[in-house]
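> @MW can you paste both from yesterday?
MW: sure, first one:
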Amino acid sequence: MEESDTKDRALRVDGLVNARDLGGLERSDGTMTPRGVFFRSDNADRISPDGWQQIFKAGIRTVVDLRQPGEREKDVQARPAWLTTINVDLDGLENTDFWANYWDNGLVGTALYFLPHLNEMPERAGTAVSAIVNAPPGGVLFHCMGGRDRTGIIAMILLSAVNADTEEIVDDYLETVRLGDVQAASGNRNSAECLLNELCERHGTTTEGAFRAALAGFNVSGFMEAANLPEGDRAALVTWRGSIPNSEVS
């Protein structure tokens, strides 16, 4: 059986620290998730001109930006003409009743809010998934600021949809956590990972435990129904834009 290698999946792009291919992870049937289809990363506004050439060589032609409008307004880097950018505000801060329980207390920085957000606002993630699976031909990179939690929600959905092995999905999320110190140093700040884990512990779990619970409680079929995804989008999701034969999708 082929072994997955998180480092081998790294997307080495000047300006990005937390970027990788979602391909190369083991699925429940022993096959691997296809490479070159979906990529996750931190903020694409940090990509240098040389980095965009690396993005092009990786086959990526679309970026789906999961950030809030106010975050995107701070962007300063020009993007190449060959790139398609699709903006999807995953958060939905106008739902103040929901965010009152997760924003100021810091839980927005943990996986403790993943399932509540998907249950309360499934259409947000549904819009992001639709943008990803309906993107123009080529690889699709999706990102938020740090590539940790908003990006983590969408990665969880994409990997669950093709029956990626549970431990592989967990390890992919934890790779971002492991990169916390490097990512913080690149932004001249201190890593928040220890504080986030302490926050999770005050809620009876850990960073890893919170994500495992979110993953265990996530149901792909239920999400697609709640998000009202069209049939074509559902098919594109569970086959990763046709890169997995229908006969391999259960």
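MW: second:
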Amino acid sequence: MKTKSSITYRLTGLILLLTCISLSAFAQEGLHIASLFDKYGREKNVTCVELNGSILKSYRMTAYKSLVFEEVTPYKEEILRCLKQDINTNKVEKTQEVTEKGQLRSAYYRLEPASRKGQELNRYILFKIGKEDMATLVYIEGLLSEEELMNILYKR
């Protein structure tokens, strides 16, 4: 027989779990790339990384998600379509793109800040196709400035 306190603890745990899941999903609200994380995050040749807790806080982030595709070719068209939709439907404050032979090789997008819990959070999308068609897609959200992000990315 379950006691009142054990039921209360389980219910509290369930509520906390659902809150964490919903906050993670809320981070990419309205972005087409969110579907890529859901769809390909568990694929065999794709590595999904989602940071949480103290690691995020130490970099002044509230969300960090990345997908690394060992071979991007089967996914490339869909990724590029989602990126294009996101930059067309969201206000992009800064864009840096590198193309090679008319093909996008890397991209940096700073989106309009999102308001969460009374704070204006900066949002960034990064995409890069590297050697042997390995590719990385990253979504970052948080209080960190563009300068702080660049320091993280280019820190040796």
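> thanks! The beta strands are 46-51, 61-69, 92-100, 103-116, 119-129, 135-142.
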